[in-house]
Amino acid sequence: MKQIPLAALLLPAWVLAQPIPTLSLTGGRYALELPYLDLGSGSARTAWKARLQSGDLAVFEVEAGSVAQQALQGSGSSAARLEGGPGAYRLQLPYLEFTLDGQTRAFRATLQSPDLARFQVEAASVAELGLYPAAPSGLQLSEQGMQTVGAQRFGSSTQLLLSWQAPGALPAQYAIEALDASGSVLRFQAGAVATQALLSGLKAATAYQVTLRACADAACSRSRSASASASTPTEFWQLQGSGNTVAGLLQPVSDGNARLSATRFGPEAGVSANTVQFYYGPRGFSGLAVASSAAGSYQSFTSLAASSGVRSPGSAGNPIQSIMTGQGVPLGGALGAKVRLFFESNDADGRTRIYSVDSVDGYAGRDFHSGAATQCSSPADYAAGGPCAATLVIGVEGDGALANPKLRAARQHKLAWPTQDDWRWRGEAGSFMVFTVDALSGCSTASHNHGYAVWDGSRFQVQYEAAGCPKLFKSMQAAVPMHLGGARYKLYFGDPSVSTGRLQGSGLPFVGPKKLLYADGALSGAAGTVEFEDWEPIAQARGLVFLWPNGEPLDDRAEGYIDDFHFLAPAGNLAQQLGYLSITDGVVVPFAALAVLLNP
């Protein structure tokens, strides 16, 4: 991932607009102050300051002792620059300000020098320019949508309000840039008479350096700036129901157990239009079933376990044996206008792979059996040519097809595509899948890691480092990506390396605290593709705050026993985000529950 030093975060290149050259008249002598002068390029680039004097505005001499090297800053279009070489130096001044009798005017000019001691002004190069607008002042950043839940008080996790005092003369417009430590930049605009702007689409629990530029023109080619910094709040998720124990939680589907994932269906989906469907493991059912919400309602689901889904055949020698987690993905028209169910299976050789099977009832997404039956269940169903023939998606080391070196297993997985653009996956190149892998000798000692596979238009290509190890998110479990618009995503996951709160003697999965990472496709490679390097380092992951229905925070134990979760915007609008999850207290059988993001 592209990284920038801390100093550049605190004073980024577009904040460190080089000080403007100035010309003044004192005691009959003109003084040209060059507080920042660029010299050279690439690794040989340096910066200097100097003071030149003149009695006639035609020839300037460098003042002895005024030349000193400066710290490099980002080069800008208005920076003074020294070019050429011995005998033919050129001092380019794209913009300088001359104040006389309280009136300030702006000019550009070029000066020539044979020896870097005396500079002759090129008369034809001198031209008057419009003044840069005055810099805005009084910048403040404040949280929005403040609310109090229990003892917690917080604002929106994705918005900050920037306010300022307008300069005396109004600019043409304002340009605003918000930079975080990963190098990701969000840009906004405000009109000439504005004194505030709402910054939205920010990352939760993230420090931002915000720069406001007062622009002299529509292109903002001339501007002055001021900056301020602030952090967004973390995400607060509240479980639905009553009280402060698992016993009081709302259960959106009556037979929900584990292996839970959720899929949004948009207005074109026919019988499933404007609903969410679970692809989940119900109690007493080995495999995956379907549960559906009513149109426009996302808190109550009807179990269709008796008539839908894929069951584990469980026969010795059968390539598909124990079907575990899965995800239903609606496909766009070019891919068949149906639902592709991706699932993991513990196969006859004891190694887990990722497969898929397509629905035969279109966007209903409940029947994956091409015959009279509505459930896939027998070994023959999943065999090649069978009514539920399974297609290998992610293979493991040694496989005859789609093999992936060093992978002994490929398990719990989620496919991410631009769901804010379309609820259907249209097979966009650059879509990606995260999936669980175990400890890999020479690559990761963590018990749970996540591999990364990018769709190339025909298959998922697992990403590898040059040394041969797969690219891994280390110590990550049950990861779920979520699209934020453009090539920006967030990723929720559990950190199983943290066992604080685990109940001694409990055999139920403990996933550890829940965390959050972000990716921005603009950080590396193709701007529209989210590559592994576009993700923040896992060390930068933020924590989440989960609240019981009564507003009390969950402790380490309660949060650690949240597993098999899926976060999504059920209506395609990020203003409403829900979390469907499996939960236990380490004693009771896990069941499906619901959480709401309080501060999107």
Task: Please supply descriptive tags for the structure shown above.
mainly beta, five-stranded mixed sheet, ten-stranded mixed sheet
List the helices and strands and how they pair.
Layout: H1 6-10, E1 22-26, E2 29-39, E3 46-54, E4 59-62, E5 68-70, E6 80-85, E7 88-100, E8 103-113, E9 118-121, E10 127-129, E11 137-143, E12 147-149, E13 152-154, E14 160-165, E15 173-179, E16 185-191, E17 196-199, E18 207-215, E19 223-231, E20 236-239, E21 256-265, E22 275-282, E23 287-293, E24 301-303, E25 310-311, E26 322-330, E27 339-346, E28 352-358, H2 379-382, E29 391-394, E30 413-416, E31 432-437, E32 449-455, E33 460-462, E34 473-474, E35 477-485, E36 488-494, E37 514-520, E38 542-543, E39 545-547, H3 556-560, E40 562-568, E41 578-583, E42 591-597
Parallel strand pairs: 1-7, 2-6, 20-39
Antiparallel strand pairs: 1-2, 2-3, 3-4, 3-5, 4-9, 6-7, 7-8, 8-9, 8-10, 11-14, 12-13, 14-17, 15-16, 15-18, 18-19, 20-42, 21-22, 22-23, 23-24, 23-25, 26-27, 27-28, 28-29, 30-31, 31-32, 32-33, 32-34, 35-36, 36-37, 37-38, 40-41, 41-42
Uncertain spans, ≥5 residues at pLDDT below 50? Answer: 1-16
Helix/strand/pairing category:
mainly beta
Largest pleated sheet: 10 strands, mixed
Distance between the termini: 26 Å
Q: In which range does the helix fraction lie? A: under 10%
Shape: elongated
Number of helices: 3
Number of distinct beta strands: 42
Strand content: 35-45%
- Write down the Rg: 30 Å
Give the oligomer, counting copies of the same chain as homo and different chains as hetero: single chain
**Average pLDDT taken over every residue:** 93
